[in-house]
Amino acid sequence: MKKRVLALCLAISLSTVCIACESSSAPETTETAESSENVTPDDTNKDIAPISDEAPMGATENVNNDIIDEGTDDSSGSKATDFDCSVFTGASYSEVCEYAKKVKDLTIAEDWNALGDMILYPVEDLDGKVLKSKDEFVKYASDPGFDKSYIDSISKWSVDEIWFNSHGACIDDGLIWFQDCDPDGTEFMIRSFFDLTPH
């Protein structure tokens, strides 16, 4: 059965390629516009913008690459500060990024006490051990502790790589998730931290 499905997929792919090749090798028909006596060479170039090799104005950077690039996004032309976070919070994009940077900095510093105040309990580890409080989190973070590769990965992560959906915001491809827990205001809480997930 698998061989038949693979053969069918291969046949469909090849036919798609053949169709694409046929349409690109077909003779082109060109239409010619009627000439106008009123068009001058200067008129044809007046709507073309000059080409520039310079970076967009407003693009910023710092040593840690942690601040938001306020240049334009190539796909939509929107500014990074214009991203709409309303899918999960009433907070602005800059507020979301500030919280993410705070979480990143505390994680790199291994400040488990401060991070313990930011976690929405209960959470559980991969073995099913449930942590119900900050004290349990701090104890867990010290022994057995977290895999150092997670902390190394977070240290290389940049805030401009943040993404979010209706479940919250994601740091470093899902190593840390946080969400807005206050429907009337903004109160971000960490929902998932490395191997600790909601219970």
Chart the SSEs and their pairings.
Blueprint (H helix, E strand, L loop, with lengths): L1 H24 L15 H4 L48 H16 L3 H5 L6 E2 L5 E2 L2 H9 L5 H9 L6 E3 L2 E4 L4 E5 L7 E6 L3 E2 L1
Antiparallel strand pairs: 1-2, 1-7, 3-4, 4-5, 5-6
Helix pairs in contact: 3-6
- How are strands sequenced across the largest beta sheet? 3-4-5-6
Helical proportion? 25-40%
Class by alpha and beta content: alpha+beta
Oligomer: single chain
Unreliable sequence segments: 44-80
What Rg, in angstroms, do the CA atoms define?
26 Å
Mean pLDDT: 74
Q: Please provide the count of β strands.
A: 7
Strand content: 5-15%
Morphology call: globular
Largest sheet: 4 strands, antiparallel
The DSSP helix count reads: 6
Q: What gap, in angstroms, lies between the N and C termini?
A: 41 Å
The succession of helices and strands, N to C, reads: HHHHEEHHEEEEE
Give your account of this protein's structure.
The chain is of the alpha+beta class and 199 residues long. It has a domain at 82-198. The chain is 34% helix and 12% strand. It has six helices and seven strands, in the order ααααββααβββββ. The chain has helices at residues 2-25, 41-44, 93-108, 112-116, 134-142, 148-156, and strands at residues 123-124, 130-131, 163-165, 168-171, 176-180, 188-193, 197-198. Strand 5 (176-180) and strand 6 (188-193) form a beta hairpin. Helix 3 crosses helix 6 (148-156).
